[in-house]
From TrEMBL:
<dbReference type="InterPro" id="IPR016071">
    <property type="entry name" value="Staphylococal_nuclease_OB-fold"/>
</dbReference>
<dbReference type="GO" id="GO:0003676">
    <property type="term" value="F:nucleic acid binding"/>
</dbReference>
<feature type="domain" description="TNase-like">
    <location>
        <begin position="89"/>
        <end position="266"/>
    </location>
</feature>
<dbReference type="InterPro" id="IPR002071">
    <property type="entry name" value="Thermonucl_AS"/>
</dbReference>
<dbReference type="GO" id="GO:0006418">
    <property type="term" value="P:tRNA aminoacylation for protein translation"/>
</dbReference>
<dbReference type="InterPro" id="IPR035437">
    <property type="entry name" value="SNase_OB-fold_sf"/>
</dbReference>
<keyword id="KW-0540">Nuclease</keyword>
<dbReference type="Pfam" id="PF00565">
    <property type="entry name" value="SNase"/>
</dbReference>
<dbReference type="InterPro" id="IPR009080">
    <property type="entry name" value="tRNAsynth_Ia_anticodon-bd"/>
</dbReference>
<dbReference type="GO" id="GO:0004519">
    <property type="term" value="F:endonuclease activity"/>
</dbReference>
<keyword id="KW-0378">Hydrolase</keyword>
<keyword id="KW-0255">Endonuclease</keyword>
<dbReference type="GO" id="GO:0005524">
    <property type="term" value="F:ATP binding"/>
</dbReference>
<protein>
    <submittedName>
        <fullName>Putative 38.1 kDa protein</fullName>
    </submittedName>
</protein>
<dbReference type="GO" id="GO:0016787">
    <property type="term" value="F:hydrolase activity"/>
</dbReference>
<dbReference type="GO" id="GO:0004812">
    <property type="term" value="F:aminoacyl-tRNA ligase activity"/>
</dbReference>
<dbReference type="GO" id="GO:0005737">
    <property type="term" value="C:cytoplasm"/>
</dbReference>
Amino acid sequence: MGSQLLLVISSISTSHLRYKKLLEAWREAKPPPKTPEEATRLVVRTLKRHQKADVEGLLTYYGLPLPHTLSEISVIPSSRPEGVKYELQTLPVDAKAVADGDTITVYVDTADTRESTNVPRGVQDAAIKRAKARAAKNYKKADELQKIIADAGYRVITGPKGEETLARKYRIRLRGIDSPESSMPYGKEAKEELVKMIQGKHLKVYVYGDDRYGRCVGDVYCNGAYIQEQMLKRGLAWHYAAYDQRPQLATWEKEARAARVGLWASSNPEKPWEWRKERRNGA
């Protein structure tokens, strides 16, 4: 589907400004759209200043889904937001990497420009020796080397075709929201919904800093959707106002409350930070 759309855009890009914009957006996309839904999101983001009828006409002509048929259409900032320290482009996320509704573990390919110059020499050597040990079927030695790699915060990930990628591990705390803990009402639902949105997908993460547990605090985007927005709108997270005063997060929580979706179906749901405090105090 993706290569089909690229071919169409390329063939007529000189005839109209919007096709030129789409071609440029396609070339800059990391990774490029791979499904009709992802292609629609790229078109919507790129042509957001164009007439709605023109955009929908273009989508219809090429057999792409219209925006209102998708579960969400959000806009990734075109430039790095103020306060962002760095940006991560992750490898596909494994379902087991989702701890709960607001914490995930991601991996970034060490071939990435930001990562390539920072890989410890010991990790590089261990990865090379591990590959040789596996080729020689010395799996005990390979497992020992894998532990060295993991202890340093890295991992060798095997792809669907057997290819191996050395990747750096990051724990991400979704900025500005607080989901119910796993043993709280709607804790399981929050985790499951987050898994549905990001499993097997590449993520873009804008990191603003670290929390006291060593996690990266950041805004997470997946296929054009702003994940914190989706968790709030679906009633599966609170706006964590004590740490983030952005008004749009408060608005999304208010909308979910009014619609009584998710945890707001309860008349007085317990706040997760109060739940944690009670357990720290031995309640």
